[in-house]
């Protein structure tokens, strides 16, 4: 007879936790893909190196969200320790998406164009 340490035994998640994280990830993933589509295909103006960089930065959180979704669908995610890692990946992807959206907004507004000092009376600069 082998005795195992109860502290090292996997702790199962309460009912509903895995389904909830899966829903949250897919909702944010849908928003992220929709925002990327709007940025790439529907934003006004010409492409600049900055707008290309913003589009590339927008893809990083999307890949992070896909990774979090993959983790949430694994059977190993029933263990509480693995679930915590998945939640951390998801939170990191949301923070990265907020940063990417703010960067995209700054680039679209033209606030960081080199050699152009924005003034309150200057018109909006199209990209």
TrEMBL record:
Membrane-crossing residue ranges in chain numbering: 21-40, 52-70, 90-112
Keywords: Membrane, Transmembrane, Transmembrane helix
Protein name according to UniProt: Uncharacterized protein
Keyword Transmembrane helix: yes
């Amino acid at each position: 007879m082998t005795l195992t340490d109860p502290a090292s035994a996997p702790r199962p998640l309460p009912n509903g936790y895995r389904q909830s994280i899966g829903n949250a990830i897919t909702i944010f993933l849908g928003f992220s893909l929709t925002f990327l589509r709007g940025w790439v295909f529907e934003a006004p103006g010409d492409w600049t190196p900055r707008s290309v960089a913003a589009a590339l930065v927008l893809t990083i959180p999307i890949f992070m969200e896909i990774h979090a979704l993959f983790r949430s669908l694994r059977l190993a995610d029933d263990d509480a320790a693995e679930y915590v890692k998945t939640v951390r990946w998801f939170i990191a992807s949301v923070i990265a998406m907020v940063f990417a959206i703010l960067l995209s907004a700054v680039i679209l507004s033209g606030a960081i164009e080199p050699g152009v000092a924005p003034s309150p009376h200057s018109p909006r600069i199209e990209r």
